[in-house]
Amino acid sequence: MLRFSQKLDRAWAVSGTSLCVGLDPVIARMPPEIRIAPRPVLAFNRFIIDAVGDLVCAFKPQFAHHAAEAAESDLAETIAYIRKTRPGVLIILDAKRGDIGSTAEMYAREAFDRYDADAVTVNPFMGDDAVLPFLTRPDRGAVVLCRTSNPDAARVQGLNSSGEPLFAALARRAETVWNRDGNVMLVVGATAPEDLATVRAAAPSLPFLVPGVGEQGGSAEEVVRRGARADGSGLIVSVSRAILHAGDANAVRAAALRFHAELKTREAVG
Amino acid sequence: MLRFSQKLDRAWAVSGTSLCVGLDPVIARMPPEIRIAPRPVLAFNRFIIDAVGDLVCAFKPQFAHHAAEAAESDLAETIAYIRKTRPGVLIILDAKRGDIGSTAEMYAREAFDRYDADAVTVNPFMGDDAVLPFLTRPDRGAVVLCRTSNPDAARVQGLNSSGEPLFAALARRAETVWNRDGNVMLVVGATAPEDLATVRAAAPSLPFLVPGVGEQGGSAEEVVRRGARADGSGLIVSVSRAILHAGDANAVRAAALRFHAELKTREAVG
């Protein structure tokens, strides 16, 4: 059994990129022939996976987009389809779970057993109690919200915590306390590049999941410059709408290739 | 169409209590004859609703306990069963959603359209962007995490925000900015009574959802004394395990009656 950090290294090595594509199916924005399929959510996800699966280190299925459509079985089959067709690719369930104790354990069971995700996004508003239940399996990880990409992110995340912003304090705690099994990542948005550098200074070794490149306006080049680890690695850069809604399969692939070119890690191996 | 605040007033008036029972089905802790039912989650929820439905102002189905069992259809049927058998009772989906923009809108659709909940719990770590999408329907509410009942709650929620704890700042913002349609509530735990009084001072008019009474050790009498509005109203006090796991139907009802006696609002009407 690979540990989470080994899976991550493998995903980067096999793909040669830090590009991750979010799977946020929106029926109204799907190509017409997919929109009328019997299971449009599953059909759309497979369409994207087929178009860009060789260009990504990770896929990030978004929970709400499936839950609003009562498409839990589509979500499960999507993940199984990635496992079958792209076995080295990391799967991050973006569900932003934020609960404690036995309830958080239920969410871990859901993400890791029911859906077989490698990692799940987690909200730390309730403190350690909301994070630690997701870290008991060395082969599965938690991706903890730290400094998100949205306009009002700083209201809570930017508060002072013993002389530094909360996002820096959370990063430090993640690096020094939560990461005993090497299975913690942080969500750090591309839209605040200076804060990205601050989080990197507070958590020199942790991998980051970086949203906000693409339609939200963040720059891939700047993300790499400010957010990478000293050795140039450590990033999963997630793009959703700018790729998902590009058009037909050729247009989707062309959009992904542009991000892929900006987010090369090394020559792909394996 | 009743507004959310009218639904809440009706729920208190019909039941004469501030008691809410959480529906957190755990198969291993169910009575043996329910555990072996074809759909144990639904059977257990109906068992609880039948036993205590006349003693509560609200039921609070817990999302994770259903999601871990792939029991979305049981969750939907549970809510429909409450609507049918206890039409005046408020239904709060405890899912602690914490996402932004179009994703948060998807979660609102899930809670209000798919599951027909009256309110959903919401996590404000991402700021206004995570709260406002749940407030666009005057007949549905958001119950925003403010000061939770768990041991490490203060790590984030107790940080200083312009001279007061974050939980007080969130309460003030909820009262003065978010509550334009009268559909905001706050989660304030029973385990920190002084903080409960602080939140009440910051949000004099908002209703509170108060967990932490029962197995977590909070006192119902102290919750009412510290947390009620000036007129004595304004509370939904949620108890889960101390009632759910009491035993057979008579034991469950007896456990609920003890809390009900401590949490009377006025003589039930209607």
Search tags:
globular, TIM Barrel, 13 helices, two-stranded antiparallel ribbon, 270 residues, homodimer, alpha/beta
**Total strand count of chain A, please?**
10
Overall mean confidence score, pLDDT of chain A: 96
| Text of the CATH class of chain A | Alpha Beta
- CATH topology description of chain A: TIM Barrel
Q: Between the first and last Cα atoms of chain A, what is the distance in angstroms?
A: 18 Å
Oligomeric state of this protein:
homodimer
Biggest chain-to-chain interface with counts: A-B, 46 and 46 residues
Largest sheet: spatial strand order of chain A = 1-2-3-4-5-8-9-10
- Which class best fits the helix and strand makeup of chain A? alpha/beta
Strand content of chain A: 15-25%
Report Rg of chain A.
17 Å
Q: Could you spell the SSE succession of chain A in H and E letters?
A: HEHHEHHEHEHEHEEHEHEHEHH
Proportion in helices of chain A: 40-55%
CATH superfamily of chain A: Aldolase class I
Shape of chain A: globular
How would a textbook summarize the main sheet of chain A? 8 strands, parallel, barrel
CATH architecture of chain A: Alpha-Beta Barrel
Number of H/I helices of chain A: 13
Number of domains of chain A: 1
Unreliable stretches of chain A: none
Question: How would you explain this protein's 3D organization?
Answer:
2 copies of one chain form a homodimer. The first copy, chain A, is an alpha/beta fold and 270 residues long. Chain A has a single domain (4-262), classed as TIM Barrel (Alpha-Beta Barrel). In chain A, 44% of the residues lie in helices and 17% in strands. Chain A contains 13 helices and 10 strands. In chain A, the strands form 2 sheets. Chain A has an 8-stranded parallel β-barrel with strand order 1-2-3-4-5-8-9-10, surrounded by 8 helices. In chain A, strand 6 (160-161) and strand 7 form a beta hairpin. Chain A is globular. The two termini of chain A are 18 Å apart. The mean pLDDT of chain A is 96. The interface between A and B is large, with 46 and 46 residues.
